[in-house]
Amino acid sequence: MKNINISWAVFIVGIFFSLNNIFAQSSPPLIVFGLIADTQYADCESGKTRFYRNSLGKLHESIDYFNNQKVQFTVNLGDIIDRDQKDLDSVLICLKHLNKKIFHTTGNHDYKGITDNKVLYKKLKMPSEYYSFMKKNWVFVFLNTNEIAAYSNVVGTAKEQELLRIQNQIKVNKEIQGARWNGGVSSRQLQWLDNLLKKSEKKNRNVLIFCHHPLYPRSQFTALNNMEILDVINRYNCVKAIFSGHHHSGAFGYFDHIPCNTVEGMIETPDKNSFGIVRIYKDRIELEGKERMTSRLFMLQP
Question: Can you tell me the mean pLDDT for 19-45?
């Protein structure tokens, strides 16, 4: 009789844990948002691997999917156009079909034809060149890795001196990300980020970071001063993941405990799209990648 009771106890405990696991898996996500990168629309002929006109159709496809999935907002990781500001009007008309708000960060191509950066931020309805907002207990941080760059109108400003300092450091360290299409962040932006993360950690909030240029793994597409940025981020356990674009083939790696996900660009290939949906649960973050975009799963660390 004693053995039978033990067996029943084990059976009941097993059912409890199974039901608990099923319930956890079926629990709705806390936050759901759409994700796109490197649309690079242009009304021009295709290049070797870039199909500029096709991007508008791909963008429409992603918008339909986001609306059907009832995302709470969408994130654009930059380079929404390729070369001409007139093309931005066509993209903005397309984005009006989104049922929910889109949050932008700029890419290097977005500055083509811009002499006043504020004009670009206003067109994209960005509150500032870098900013954050909070939803539930999550802070969404949008860095501007184009702030210190040869293409973003820094000549004759204090930012030009910061660019020269960073470029010189890259040469001294024999790093590989010194290309003209890469940018970085200013010391002022780093201080803003540090203060924001310190406050978030103190209030026990979780943080996601978005930027155009990858921070890690290092490549020829990495932000100019990626290690300065990562040094700030890595001080805090509240940062749960980093999402970036720019490197169209995509990349992934962990910097210490932080998953760094570079998503595939929409511009590549004539007909295969690239977009995704991010779902945040209590214990994990899921990226559901569509077509070229790779799906990922990040378990949340306490």
Answer: 81
Helices (H), the chain: 2-26, 54-68, 86-95, 117-123, 158-173, 187-202, 226-233
Percent of the chain with pLDDT over 90: 90
The CATH architecture that domain 29-297 belongs to is 4-Layer Sandwich (3.60)
**Digit-coded pLDDT (tens) for 234-269:** 999 999 999 999 999 999 999 999 999 999 999 999
What pLDDT was estimated at residue 301? 80
Mean confidence (pLDDT) of the chain: 92
**Contact between 210 and 243 (Cβ < 8 Å):** yes
HSE (side-chain half, CA atoms, 13 Å) at 168? 6
Contacts of 54 by beta carbon, 8 Å cutoff, 6+ apart: 46, 270, 271
Q: Which two tokens stand for residue 254?
A: 């962990």
Structure tokens at 112: 């083509």
pLDDT digits (tens, 9 = 90+) for 114-132: 999 999 999 999 999 999 9
Q: How many of the other CB atoms lie within 10 Å of CB of 23?
A: 9
Helices 226-233 and 187-202, axial angle in degrees (round to 10): 20
Residue spans of the domains in the chain: they are: 29-297
DSSP secondary structure string, 5-17? Answer: HHHHHHHHHHHHH
Terminus-to-terminus CA distance in the chain, angstroms?
43
Residue 275 gets which letter from DSSP?
Answer: E
Question: CA of 2: how far to CAs of 5, 7, 11, 15, 242, in Å?
Answer: 5, 9, 14, 20, 54
What is the 3-state secondary structure of 92-154?
Answer: HHHHCCCCCCEEECCCHHHHCCCCCHHHHHHHCCCCCCCEEEEECCEEEEECCCCCECCCCCC
CB 227 within 8 A of CB 190: no
Tokens 């242009």 locate to 42
